[in-house]
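Issue: ligand-bound run for NAP - logging full I/O for the record.

Environment: standard queue, default settings, no custom constraints.

Inputs:
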Amino acid sequence: MKIYGIFGDPIGHSLSPAMHSAAFEVMGLEACYHAFLVQKGSLRDAVLGAKAMGFGGLNLTIPLKEEALRVVQPDDLALAIGAVNTVSFCHGISGHNTDGLGAKKALEEAGAAIRGRRVLIIGAGGAARALAYTLARDGAYVSIANRSRARAADLAGHVGGSAFGLDELERLVPGSDIIINATSVGMKDGDPRVLDGELLRRGQMVFDIVYNRETELLKDAARAGAGTLDGVMMLVYQGAEAIRIWTGRDAPADAMEQAVRKALAARARGQA
Ligand code: NAP
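Outputs:
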């Protein structure tokens, strides 16, 4: 029985164990997947421990994705993005980033073309880095708006985009084809709106990578007649790519999506 897991802090509410367990079952793998609380500063010990115990692979989440660059051997993509979300023990201890690919696949599946489009990414954290790098590489004109403008400027400089503060959204949103919320705003009930919904219009695609609930942003986008996409399929596709890295096999995205939606529904009913 191979053990896989996700390390992070906090980690109790991760949907990855349900999603990956469903995939392993469909794939007929003798494997299990668990969530482990690993605090900042402890990643090296935890990764070496997992390797020593024969783990099959790991996912990493907040706040460990950047620290991992100093702990594992990052591949070119993880290095270019500046964050690792997947660790493989197949050859040494290698680090990968599947968030950008997951987001891109989800957008394409929702019918959004990327090349030549004006993409506004709100946020400049780990997930925004993966999105900005991937979409800019695929020919989008990327603008980054972030609460901390300095962090937006750093990311925009890295991917050849433009940087803005959140106070400039009123001007930026109407001229954007794809608007992506890559902040954590919207994860909790009662969170403020990340932007004024009146700015949205038909013909735009609004992608909120938050996946644990329907956010006010997506409700506003639907009211405005814009296309909407939540974070579930990005979660599924980044997880499917991690499985491909660990096992060399295609993962069953349908079963993974079903498991995530079932876990979310149970959570909404207060059962998990
Ligand atoms: P992170 O590195 O901690 O970055 C958080 C971002 O949110 C930063 O840009 C931060 O701005 C901004 N932010 C936080 N609180 C804010 C507020 N009150 N007002 C405005 N901006 C605020 O986190 P991350 O890893 O990028 O994750 C961000 C979100 O993406 C989370 O909700 C996470 O669950 C989700 N996510 C989804 C997937 C998926 O597969 N669907 C994958 C990865 C992440 P500052 O720089 O100014 O602090």
